[in-house]
Write a structure and sequence with these properties.
heterodimer; A: 243 residues; two-stranded antiparallel sheet; globular; B: 164 residues; 2 helices
C-alpha cells in the first residue's frame, strides 16, 4: 500500500478473538463486534422503550413506535395485506442495515455494511427468499413472471432473456448499491482527513469539507437503509402478486 | 481493497448469520410484539375514551332534555295556577261588589222611605202648627176665637196650593 495510511485501510478486518470451527476461521472480528453492537442497541431501543410503555410516549418510545409504524406502513403499502408475515423480517433488515450504516459514522467505529460480502449475503438471502416465496405461492406459474403480460408473443425470445437477466441481477445491484455507497462515503472522508494533515495550516478547508460530508453521510446511511428495505418489499410484492 | 480479501469471508458470513438470526428472533418474538402491543393499547384506549365521551354526551343531553321538560311543565302549571287564582279573585270581587251594591241600594231605599215618612209627618205637623198660628193670629186680631173647621180648611187649601 502506498503512503503511510491508505484511505481503504479503514475497511480492514481485524481478528479480535481468533476462533476456529473445524478448519473454518470464524474469528470474532471488528465487523462481528459491530454487528453484535447493532443487535444489542436495536433490542435495547425497542425493548427498553416499551418496558414502561406509557399512553403518551417518551422520546425513546416515540423512536421505537415511529420505526415500527414506518416499516409496517411500508410493508402494508408495498406488499399489501399478505406482507404482514414478512414484517418482522423486513423490520430486522431495515434496523440491521440502518444501525450498521450509522455505527460506522461514530469515530473509531466500523461499518460492516461496507463489506461487500455482508451486503451480498443479505441480498442473496433476500433474493433466495423472494424466489422461494414465489415458487411456494405460484409453483410453475412463477415463470410467467419473465414474460410481461400483454406483450406480443413473438417478442418472447427478446423479452424473456432480458427479464431473466434483470431478475438475476437484483442481488448484485442490491448489494453493490449499499456497499459502494458506504465505502465511497468513508473513503472520501478518509481522503479529506488525509489532506488536513498534509495541508498543515490550510487544513481547515478539508475539515470544513469533512463536516459537510459527514452531514451528507448521515443522510446517505438512512437513505441506503431505506432503499435496501423498500427494494426488499418490492421484490416480495413481485413474488406474491407476480405482476 | 481489504473487502475483497476472501480469507475474511467465512468469519464474516458466520457472524452475519449468527447476529442476524439473533436479531430476527429477538424482533419477531420479543421486541415487535411489545411495540405493537403498546400502539394497539393506545389505539384501544383512545377508542374507549371516545366511545365513553360520546355516551356521556348523550347522557348529558338526555338530562338536559328532561330538565327542560320539567321546567316547561312547571311553568305551565304555575301559569295555570295564576290564571285560576286571578279568575277566582275576580269572581270574588265581582260578588262582593254586587253584594255591596245591593246593600247600598237597600239602605238608599230605606233612607228614602224614612225621608218620605218624615216629610209626611213634617207636613202633617206643619198643618197643626199652621192651624195653631192661624187661630192665634185670628184671636189677636179679632179677639174672638176662630172657627177651627174653617181654619183647618184654609190651611189645607193653602198647603195644596203650595204643594202644587
Amino acid at each position: 500500500m502506498a503512503g503511510p495510511k491508505s484511505p481503504l485501510e479503514q475497511f480492514t478486518i481485524e481478528r479480535l478473538i481468533p476462533l476456529h470451527l473445524g478448519s473454518v476461521d470464524v474469528s470474532y472480528t471488528n465487523s462481528a463486534l459491530l454487528m453484535t453492537v447493532a443487535v444489542v442497541l436495536i433490542t435495547l431501543l425497542l425493548v427498553g422503550a416499551t418496558r414502561r410503555a406509557s399512553l403518551v410516549p417518551g422520546r425513546l418510545q416515540s423512536v421505537a413506535e415511529l420505526s415500527y409504524e414506518f416499516i409496517a406502513g411500508m410493508v402494508q403499502e408495498n406488499i399489501g395485506h399478505e406482507g404482514i408475515e414478512f414484517f418482522p423480517l423486513v423490520f430486522s433488515i431495515f434496523m440491521f442495515v440502518l444501525f450498521g450504516n450509522m455505527l460506522g459514522l461514530i469515530p473509531f467505529g466500523y461499518t460492516f455494511t461496507s463489506q461487500i460480502i455482508v451486503t451480498f449475503a443479505l441480498s442473496i438471502f433476500v433474493f433466495a427468499l423472494v424466489t422461494l416465496v414465489a415458487f411456494i405461492r405460484h409453483g410453475i406459474h412463477f415463470f410467467s413472471f419473465f414474460f410481461p403480460p400483454g406483450a406480443p408473443v413473438f417478442m418472447a425470445p427478446i423479452l424473456v432473456p432480458i427479464e431473466i437477466v434483470s431478475y438475476l441481477s437484483r442481488p448484485v445491484s442490491l448489494s453493490i448499491r449499499l456497499f459502494a455507497n458506504m465505502m465511497a462515503g468513508h473513503t472520501m472522508m478518509a481522503v479529506f482527513a488525509g489532506f488536513t494533515i498534509t495541508l498543515g495550516v490550510f487544513g481547515f478547508f478539508p475539515i470544513g469539507v469533512n463536516v459537510a460530508l459527514y452531514g451528507l453521510e448521515v443522510i446517505v446511511t438512512a437513505l441506503q437503509a431505506y432503499v435496501f428495505t423498500i427494494l426488499t418489499c418490492l421484490y416480495l410484492r413481485d413474488a406474491i402478486h407476480l405482476h | 481493497m481489504p473487502q475483497l480479501d476472501a480469507s475474511t469471508f467465512p468469519t464474516q458470513l458466520f457472524w452475519l448469520l449468527v447476529t442476524f438470526v439473533v436479531l430476527y428472533v429477538l424482533m419477531r418474538w420479543l421486541a415487535l410484539p411489545r411495540v405493537g402491543q403498546a400502539i394497539e393499547d393506545r389505539r384501544k384506549r383512545l377508542d374507549n375514551d371516545l366511545t365513553r365521551a360520546a355516551e356521556l354526551k348523550s347522557q348529558a343531553e338526555a338530562v338536559l332534555a328532561a330538565y327542560q321538560n320539567t321546567l316547561a311543565a312547571a311553568r305551565a302549571e304555575a301559569q295555570a295556577a295564576l290564571r285560576q287564582n286571578a279568575e277566582r279573585l275576580a269572581a270574588e270581587a265581582a260578588e262582593r261588589q254586587r253584594e255591596l251594591a245591593a246593600a247600598l241600594a237597600e239602605q238608599v231605599a230605606q233612607a228614602e222611605q224614612r225621608i218620605a215618612a218624615m216629610k209626611q209627618q213634617a207636613l202633617a205637623e206643619m198643618r197643626g202648627i199652621a192651624a195653631d198660628v192661624g187661630s192665634a193670629v185670628v184671636e189677636k186680631l179679632t179677639g174672638t176665637a176662630a172657627d177651627p173647621g174653617k181654619l183647618a180648611a184654609a190651611v189645607e187649601a193653602a198647603a195644596t196650593r203650595r204643594a202644587a
